[in-house]
Amino acid sequence: PEHVIAVVVGSLRRESFNRRLADALPALFPEGFELRQVRIDDLPLYNQDDDANPPESALRLKREIREASGVIFATPEYNRSISGVLKNALDHASRPYGDSAWAGKPAGIVGVSVGQSGTACAQQHLRPILGYLDMPTLGQPEVYIQVKDDTFDADGSLGESTRTFMQGWVNRYVDWVQRHAG
Ligand code: FNR
């Protein structure tokens, strides 16, 4: 593939809506793009004492991010912010100081929530983190999805209106990656 896109899902829940959303994304991308969900469930809690000798799972995550042309975050909203597991992954791959894997990677944020905010609050917390990590982050369209009866089909795939909306977002994100590539 011309572009590998790393996808970070910020929920470890088996039936995660955000993972379902992430699972539906590859079908919306054009040829030349390959999406790879990266594992974050085996990362230990980040501990700066380990910077000189990072865990293998953190080294793997950094390798996968470095191989990617861009990163998509599918974030749940936990108590009006991002989940701890997502922040843990962001911290792991940002260290040791001066050796962040995130820098320069064009980012996209999507999120689905059962609450009315549709992860808007979580995403407003995620944006400045990505800004600090030097990740140019697509601004529009914003993807604030509240789970409704028709958001997902019975088989877990995207319902028609969600799919149409997400296709528009993917088209913009593809442009964003190509603009920042190389
Ligand atoms: C939630 N949930 C939630 N939803 C929301 O819209 N705003 C919020 O602030 C919170 N806070 C929150 C805290 C914690 C600790 C949990 C476990 C859940 C509900 C959340 O949207 C719901 O569990 C989603 O299903 C989480 O995303 P996944 O796991 O389906 O991807």
Automatic annotation (TrEMBL):
InterPro entries referenced in this protein's UniProt entry, alphabetically: Flavoprotein-like_sf (IPR029039), FMN_Rdtase-like_dom (IPR005025), NAD(P)H-dep_reductase (IPR050712)
GO CC field: cytosol
Example GO molecular function: oxidoreductase activity
Alphabetical keyword list: Flavoprotein, FMN
NADPH-dependent FMN reductase-like domain: residues covered: 5-146
SUPFAM superfamilies, A to Z: Flavoproteins
Cofactor(s), names only, from the UniProt record: FMN
Protein's recorded name: FMN reductase
